[in-house]
Amino acid sequence: MTRYAHITGWGMAVPEAILTNADLEKMVETSDEWITSRTGIRERRIAAKNESTATLAAKAGLRALESTGLLARELDLVIVASASPEHLFPATACLVQDALGATRAGAFDLSAACSGFIYAVQMAAQSIRTGAIDSALVIGAETLSRLVNWEDRETCVLFGDGAGAFVLEARETPGGVLSGVLRSDGSGGSLLTVPAGGSRMPASADTLERNLHTIHMNGREVFRFATRVMATATREVVAGAGLKMDDIELVVPHQANLRIIEAAARGLHLPMERFMVNIERYGNTSSASIPMAVCEAVEQGRVRPGDHLVLVGFGAGLTWGALALQWVETRRPPGVQRSRLTLWTFLAHLRSFALRVWRRLEGLFWGTSSEG
């Protein structure tokens, strides 16, 4: 039996707070015209104090699960792609796995910056096709507002917060993820980076004073790199799927800069109508941008069963990648499944809370005993 990895559920989550270009005019020396003409961005979402990469990821993951009816406890794997994880460790994916009640799933984070979601979906799809797993929840989630230097007008206008998620399941029906391209060039690692906070440059008074825990970018070189690889990766992944560019109904690119997307369209000789663009409302949400754009494309009726899509992105590393897939409507009717999922999630939260309380009491008990 040939196994195919289908996208059976999808969901997204964004903070309520909106930061417009007009708001940024009051913070740094910039203007709405300057930002819009150079990036295509008009506003972006900013996480509240009680929100984080893990909370946004869990919301998006839950919505993806609810859309398909698959129970969290049935998942085999949870992957979170993020350039702004909750912690260095534990993995954000483990926190999401616990929050959702995916009690039998393995979980890990994947770091490939803005290309991370492409990498993660390809890894999950390969695991499904080989029979290693039957289902996976793949999430791209970011709170890049926590890594931005709000005094640097070159970067602070670009980034926003959000999360998007896919559920992938094994099916016998042909379609789903057809081919993937994953590439990197570490010689360009310094072009887009958060220099401090790792083992190479641990946190210190000096790194804080020099803003080395924030995003540093050589915008001109990143632009040149992106315009080159977007078209190349798209052609390569389409050929790998045995398709032609005329077979592709929609290209969903990483939402980093409208001018980059327009350059990719020219390089592929495709009209902009064949590209999904929502950067004007969310800015660059890194690994979350592609799944968020897919969710909105589905909502807008731009993706129909049988359509062929290309998802293509690039990011720090330097990394880039693309996926070709055929969209096949395989979602289960939610109905009773959704209520079961909600109940199971509540029980999972209750179990998690009880375990935390027990561990705290156990620690207090043994601490008292050892002192005695």
In short:
This protein is α/β, with parallel strands linked by helices and 372 residues long.
Write structural notes for this entry.
This protein has 372 residues and is α/β, with parallel strands linked by helices. Helix content is 40%, strand content 21%. The chain has one domain (4-326): 3-Layer(aba) Sandwich (Peroxisomal Thiolase, Chain A, domain 1), CATH 3.40.47. It has helices at residues 21-25, 32-39, 53-68, 92-100, 116-130, 153-156, 205-209, 219-240, 258-268, 279-282, 289-299, 335-371, and strands at residues 4-13, 18-20, 43-45, 77-81, 106-110, 135-143, 161-171, 176-184, 192-193, 216-217, 250-253, 308-315, 319-326. The protein has a five-stranded mixed beta sheet, with helices on both faces. Helix 3 (53-68) runs antiparallel to helix 12 (335-371). The radius of gyration is 21 Å and the shape is globular. The N and C termini lie far apart (63 Å). Mean pLDDT is 92; it is low at 333-340 and 368-372.
